[in-house]
Design goal:
protease, metal ion binding, Dipeptidase, metal-binding, Cyt/Met_Dipeptidase
Length: about 450
């Protein structure tokens, strides 16, 4: 595979760049045609790589791409999952280069989607291409690329249920996560779930003069801030009643296994330019982001925020709040508990609305599985170091749905790094990680 990469890498760049140039932002209606264009381009690349068939399928939202190549009725079947939609590029002014005109500098590709997830799904296309062209493919391979992961995959679960037989496989292979570092590879054994809500606090029926009414009428922004502050106590515990009922405490043995991952707290703080970390009492930083739930405000707004002064008490204040959940916590249950709690703590002088946005459950996979062992062996061969099992702090809610619908486990072989700043300006993907990922994926098929 290494020789194949060296021989074909300039072609690889051009093909990957053709995907990265398409602004497939799923959250913005103005990019609907770009979503279609990106799906069509993936079909072309699948067929060129050696798929027997590949097509675009319509859903209630953005299209799904499905492709496959069959070797035999008795061969194991791998279902490769990825997503071609990307986050908005805003704030564009903070990018050093055009987010949709990929550029290679300092040993990395810079573009929106370079890592998440176009760059990582592209690794699977090229590993597959290599195995087909070299006559080494011994597995049936299916591909499913969706266009809604960045908005919570609202259409894919229903589509997958309708096409359950077509998607039948033995394992779901995914590259949409990070590893610990370039020198310490890791394999995600689980990811957190998500409950995402928007809250609205309303006071007076109109904006009021802060001189005429200040001190006599409740300010919805002040009230909202007080309510949000009460959601987490001094020990970092979430105060929503029933929130922790289904959280499973890990054994000392399991915590020790996860602690194998090398972690330099000072390096972590330096990277983020912070003086100190903060989180739930009694847990390490890695545990806080892997095995414990959390609650965060993702955005808050209301009143006047334009240039100059406008002395008003706003009528309305809003906030977007996300809760990362651990396996066993049910997203719909947590959303309901949050809504009940948030309304219960609202004072009489405001009205509160809670709007569920999207969510999904977390999952765990055993490190004793055949697929995990094959991935571990492959990455050991490429990196010269046995990968560490880890848990992802982020969420890919659709994977729990696919696990339930298809009855098979996902395996997360991610090759991104924290330095790649996905979802932020100047997203990038190191070339050596791109190539190491291709090689590792090709070897996975050898050992699985």
């Amino acid at each position: 595979m290494r020789e194949y990469i060296e021989k074909n890498k300039e072609r690889f760049f051009q093909e990957l760049f053709s995907l990265l140039r398409i602004p497939s932002v799923s959250s913005m209606a103005e990019h609907r045609q770009d979503m279609v264009a990106c799906a069509d381009r993936l079909v072309e690349l699948l067929l060129e790589a050696g798929a027997d068939e590949a097509s675009v399928y319509q859903t209630s939202g953005h299209p799904v791409v499905f492709g496959c190549r069959k070797v035999s009725d008795t061969a194991p079947t791998v279902l490769v999952y990825g997503h071609y939609d990307v986050q908005p590029a805003d704030p564009v002014e903070l990018w050093k280069s055009d987010p949709f005109e990929p550029e290679i500098r300092d040993g990395a590709i810079y573009a929106r989607g370079a890592n998440d997830d176009k760059g990582q799904l592209f690794m699977h296309l090229k590993a597959f291409e290599y195995l087909v062209r070299e006559g080494l493919l011994r597995h049936n391979v299916k591909f499913i690329f969706e266009g809604e992961e960045e908005i919570g995959s609202p259409s894919l679960a229903a589509w997958a249920s309708e096409h359950k037989d077509m998607l039948a496989a033995d394992i779901i292979l995914v590259s949409d996560t990070t590893m610990i570092s370039e020198s310490v590879p890791s394999i995600n054994c689980g990811m957190r779930g998500l409950s995402y809500v928007e809250v609205k606090v309303t006071g007076p029926d109109k904006d009021l003069h802060s001189g005429h009414y200040g001190g006599a009428v409740a300010n919805p922004i002040n009230v909202l801030c007080d309510m949000i502050a009460s959601l987490i106590d001094k020990d970092g515990h979430i105060t929503v009643k029933g929130f922790y009922d289904d959280v499973v405490e890990l054994s000392d043995e399991d915590r020790a296994q996860l602690a194998r991952a090398p972690f330099d707290l000072q390096e972590y703080k330096d990277f983020l330019n912070i003086r100190e970390v903060k989180g739930e009492t009694g847990y390490s930083t890695l545990e806080r982001t892997g095995i414990r739930p959390c609650l965060d405000v993702n955005g808050i707004w209301g009143g006047y925020t334009g240039e100059g002064a406008k002395t008003v008490i706003p009528s309305v204040a809003h906030a977007k709040i996300s809760m990362r959940l651990v396996p066993n916590q049910d997203s719909e249950t947590i959303t309901r508990l949050f809504e009940q709690h948030f309304k219960s703590i609202a004072p009489d002088y405001v009205r509160v609305e809670v709007k569920p946005c999207h969510g999904g459950n977390g999952f765990l996979i055993p490190i004793s599985s055949r697929a995990y062992k094959a991935a571990s062996r492959a990455m050991t061969e490429v990196y010269g170091v046995e990968p560490v099992p880890s848990r992802g702090g982020g969420s890919i809610p659709i994977l729990a749905d696919l696990q339930r619908i298809l009855g098979i486990d996902p395996l997360l072989m991610g090759f991104g790094l924290e330095r790649d700043t996905i979802h932020s300006p100047n997203e990038s993907y190191l070339l050596k990680q791109l190539f190491a990922g291709m090689e590792s994926i090709a070897l996975f098929y050898k050992y699985y």
